[in-house]
């Protein structure tokens, strides 16, 4: 949150971009930071295969009607994912088959998002519709991060992207399923904001970092959402100049070892 963005003409937007739950206006919390109330279910635990843990995170992108889908003549999501694994220090892959192009039929006649991204809440009925589309696509796992490219009226607010971590989506079979979503507007689709998705992924990783409870096999969140490069892990952003997790990521790619280590402890690994 708080990321200022340049427009495609090179002018800075009036307002700041919001990541996670920070905003100029107070936002309701998306999760409860109390580890007891946010257990990691077996479905969300690391995948043990042949005695070793696979260590990659998977991302599925979706294009809403009206979203910009290309940059530099290439797929926009593919451009946004360039060098993401090298920057964060562990494999981060796109689900094979490319982004899903949604249609008005997929969304339904009553689908209507707020006028700008800053007003989007996790329990918005239309956003819930998107969450259900993602959950239906991956019925056997909650680990895959959803990235939604959407045509908000973002120039009125300056909000380019937001991350929503540990969003509860209850279904008929389980009491709770926690998913992670990123929403990105059209206007950062330019040469000034190539690190926006990588920055938002960082918020998801920090919000899903875990430790194992001593004497048990249970994973619990640790310092949810805070950036370990901030003093005493007290802020969701870095204060270090040039750092990817600064409030204004722009085209920055620098990270500290502590940031990479915390991100690598995400329970979203497959």
Secondary structure layout plus pairing:
Layout: E1 3-6, E2 12-17, E3 48-49, E4 52-53, E5 57-63, E6 70-71, E7 74-75, H1 76-80, H2 84-88, E8 92-94, E9 100-101, H3 104-107, H4 125-137, E10 145-149, E11 161-168, E12 178-184, H5 196-207, E13 210-212, E14 219-221, H6 257-264
Parallel strand pairs: 5-8, 5-9, 5-10, 10-12
Antiparallel strand pairs: 1-2, 3-4, 6-7, 11-12, 13-14
Helix pairs in contact: 5-6
Mean pLDDT, rounded to whole units?
A: 80
Give the biggest beta sheet: 6 strands, mixed
> Rg to the nearest angstrom?
18 Å
User: What is the count of structural domains?
Assistant: 1
CATH topology: Collagenase (Catalytic Domain)
- CATH architecture label name: 3-Layer(aba) Sandwich
Instruction: Note the run of SSEs as H and E.
Output: EEEEEEEHHEEHHEEEHEEH
Distance between the termini: 28 Å
Number-wise, the strands total 14
Helicity level, as a percent range?
A: 10-25%
Helix-and-strand structural type: alpha/beta
Uncertain runs:
1-54
**How many helices?**
6
């Amino acid at each position: 949150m708080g990321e200022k963005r340049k427009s495609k003409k090179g002018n800075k937007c009036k307002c700041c971009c919001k990541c996670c739950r920070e905003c100029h206006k107070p936002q309701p919390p998306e999760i409860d930071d109390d580890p007891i109330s946010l257990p990691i279910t077996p479905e969300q635990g690391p995948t043990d295969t042949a005695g070793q843990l696979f260590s990659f995170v998977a991302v599925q992108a979706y294009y809403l009607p009206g979203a910009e889908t290309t940059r530099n003549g290439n797929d926009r999501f593919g451009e946004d994912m360039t060098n993401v694994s090298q920057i964060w220090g562990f494999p981060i892959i796109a689900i094979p088959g490319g982004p899903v192009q949604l249609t008005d039929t997929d969304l339904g006649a009553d689908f209507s998002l707020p006028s700008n991204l800053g007003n989007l809440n996790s329990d918005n009925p239309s956003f819930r519709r998107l969450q259900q589309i993602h959950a239906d696509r991956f019925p056997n796992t909650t680990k895959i991060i959803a990235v939604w490219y959407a045509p908000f009226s973002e120039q009125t607010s300056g909000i380019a992207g937001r991350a929503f971590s540990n969003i509860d989506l209850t279904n008929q079979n389980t009491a709770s399923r926690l998913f992670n979503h990123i929403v990105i507007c059209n206007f950062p689709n330019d040469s000034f904001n190539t690190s926006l998705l990588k920055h938002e992924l960082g918020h998801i990783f920090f919000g899903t970092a875990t430790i194992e409870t001593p004497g048990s096999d249970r994973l619990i969140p640790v310092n949810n959402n805070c950036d370990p490069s901030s003093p005493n892990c007290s802020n969701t952003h870095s204060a270090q100049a040039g750092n990817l997790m600064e409030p204004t990521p722009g085209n920055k790619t620098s990270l500290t070892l502590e940031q990479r280590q915390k991100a690598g402890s995400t329970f979203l690994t497959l």
